[in-house]
Amino acid sequence: MMTPMRYVLLVLIIIISLHYILSFSHEGYGNATSLSNIRDQLHFGGEKGAPPYKTPLPDEYIHPPKVANPLERKANATFVILARNSDIQGVAMSMKQAEDRFNKEFNYPWVFLNEEPFNDEFKKRTRELTDAEVHYGLIPKEDWFQPDWIDEDRAKAAREKMVKDNVIYGGSLPYRNMCRFNSGFFYRHELLKNYRYYWRVEPNVQFFCDLHYDPFLVMQDQNKVYGFTVSLYEYAATIPTLWQEVKNFLKENPGLMPGDNAMKFLSDDGGETYNRCHFWSNFEIGDLDFWRGEAYSKFFDYLDSKGGFYYERWGDAPVHSIGAALFARKDQIHFFNDIGYRHEPFQHCPQGEAHSKGKCWCSEKDNFDYQWYSCLKRYDALFQ
Ligand SMILES: Nc1nc2c(ncn2[C@@H]2O[C@H](COP(=O)(O)OP(=O)(O)OP(=O)(O)O)[C@@H](O)[C@H]2O)c(=O)[nH]1
Ligand SMILES: *[C@@H]1O[C@H](CO)[C@@H](O)[C@H](O)[C@H]1NC(C)=O
Ligand SMILES: *[C@@H]1O[C@H](CO)[C@@H](O)[C@H](O)[C@H]1NC(C)=O
Ligand SMILES: [Mg+2]
C-alpha cells in the first residue's frame, strides 16, 4: 500500500530526476554531454558533415615510421608462405608479427603460394600489412598433386592404416601433397627463382622478440645454408623406410657429403640408424640455391621415386633436415637463438641477455630448447 508520505517522496524523486535530465541539455554542462549536440555530432539526421572520428588528425601529430637499416645493404631474399585462402586469419597474424618484430625495418618481399588462385580478400588483407612487395603464385599441378605413377590402391591402404593407428594427418592426401611440395618443389617455383634466401612462415605462428639485425645477411655473409629455431624427434610411424632409402641413396651416390657434415645430429651410431632428430620446418631461413644444387636435387628425386611421400607420410621436416645435415657442412646450419618463435605446441624463447635485448614477451621458463623431446643438445654436440 502506498502511504501519503511515500507518495510525496515519489513525487519529489521524479521532480529531482527531471531537473537532472533537463540540465544535461543545458549549455553550461558543455557540448560533450549535451544530448542535442551529440545527436548533431553523430549525424543522426544525415544532413551534417562526417562524424569527428572520421576526420584525420592534423599531420603535426603523426610521425612517419622509422626506417633503419644500418648496414645499408640487403640480401637477395624473401619471405615465403604456403597457404590456402581459408588460412587468411592465421596468415595475417603471422605476417603482422613478422612485420612488427623485424620486417618493417627491412622491407623484404612476401611470396604467397597456393595450388588454387588466391582470392581478393586474401590479397587485400596481406597486401595492407606490409610496405614491401607482395607476390601471389599458383603452384603448377604437376608439382602439387599425387603423380600418376603412384599406385593409388597402395597409397590408400597406407592412409587407412595410419588412420587406424592414429597417426597425425595419417589419412590426409592434401597434407602429403604439401609435404612433397615443400620437400622438393617450392624452391623451384617461378616466383622464388630470382631469390637466393627465404624465410618460411606458417599461419598462426608467433614471433616474440624484436630482431634488429638482418638474418638473411648472416646467412649470406657467413655462408650458412639452413637456419632453425626448434628441433625435435619425428613420429616413427610416418617414416618407416625413409632412413633405409637414405642409406641406399648414399651408397649409390658416393662423394656428395662434405667431411664435416652433421651426420651426428641424425644418427647416434655413425649412420646405421636414424635417431629421428629433425629441424622443425615450419620455421626455416634457408638458401634456395642449396636445395637447387646437385646433391639435394638428386637426393629429393631419389626419395620421390620411392613413393614414400604417399606410401608412408614422409614430412618435409625430416627430408630437409637430412638433406641439410648430410650435404652441407655442420657450421652451415645455424641456430637462430635470437628469434623467439612459437608454432603450437612448442616454442623457443631466448634466454638471459638475448631475451632482454630482443624485448621478448615470451616467458623464459616456457622454452623447448632442452626439454626431453628436443634435439638441440645433439646440435650443440656437433661443435663440442
Ligand atoms: N595451399 C595449401 N597450403 C597448405 C595445404 N595444407 C597445408 N598447407 C600449408 O602448408 C603449411 C603446413 O601445413 P600445416 O597445416 O600448418 O601443417 P603442420 O604445421 O604440420 O600442422 P599444424 O600447423 O599443427 O596444423 C602451412 O603453411 C599451411 O598453410 C593445402 O592443402 N594447400
Ligand atoms: C556548444 O556548441 C554551441 C554551438 O556549436 C556553441 O555556441 C557553444 O559555445 C558550445 N558550448 C560549449 C560549452 O562548448
Ligand atoms: C638472386 O639470387 C638468384 C639465385 O641465386 C640469382 O639468380 C639472382 O641473379 C640474384 N639476384 C641478384 C640481384 O643478385
Ligand atoms: Mg603449421
Automatic annotation (TrEMBL):
The active site is at 284 (nucleophile). The keyword Acyltransferase does not apply. GO terms for biological process: cell wall mannoprotein biosynthetic process; protein N-linked glycosylation. This is Glycosyltransferase family 15 protein. Belongs to the glycosyltransferase 15 family. One of its GO terms (molecular function) is alpha-1,2-mannosyltransferase activity. Residues 1-23 form the signal peptide. It comes from the Eukaryota.
